[in-house]
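User: Sequence for Outer membrane lipoprotein-sorting protein below. Tokens please.
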Amino acid sequence: MISIFRFVVLCLLCAAFQAHADDPRAREIMQQVEDRDDGDNRTSDMRMVLIDRKGNQRTREIQSYAKDFGEDTYRMMFFREPADVLGTGFLTYDYDDESRDDDQWLYLPALRKVKRIASQDKSGSFMGSDFNYSDMTSRNLSDYDFTLQKELPLGEHTVWVIEAIPRSEDVIDETGYKKSLLLVRQDSHVVVRAVHWTADGNKQRYFDTLSLDLIDGIWTPLEVTMTTKQGKQTLHKTAISFSNVKYNQDLDESLFTVRYLERDL
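Assistant: Structure tokens for Outer membrane lipoprotein-sorting protein:
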């Protein structure tokens, strides 16, 4: 009887260990991804193309700004075209302190209202795209267990393949993902491909960096896509391209405030 009890306990302990196993090498790589220089005082033009399952496209033109405030990064986006999204603004405070939830606000000109994005809403679609609100900020590394699965060639480069498992249901609820596979390019520490398993609907989202270039010594993605699939069927796709990317611009701090977002109210 005692031996059976010990066997059951051992099995439970092994299961618990496997559920929360964390690979120090994988975490070290993800920390290098987190610490990679991504520039400061950045401006760029963005083009977002929404593609439905029939291939129909909708295009949105956006101006984007980013500025570091100490260890935190603030980002502002303004939608310029088409007319139905003209004037829409999106502000994000991406905090380095992992004990703080990142703040996000969306200004909808049609409603003349600023909406703060609550944590429970961050798994929702960002402006009808395949990116959700949580995709618009960096992940807290302490929220995940990482496992280095293998290294493999990807085009002309070598990548690490890292599995990321959320450590709590709260993280799954906020991000909308129950598991991710991340492909990190070894020469740049940029995530160039990822697969996210959604928490509901049995869907997968495939993220790809199609174009990556050095601008002012900073590895900068210039074209990315996010594709939502169910099995082999593509349900929707979002393509984002960046142009006129500039760093070290003279950006006033007042640009990155809710008051500036509300300026047309």
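The first helix runs from residue 2 to 19.
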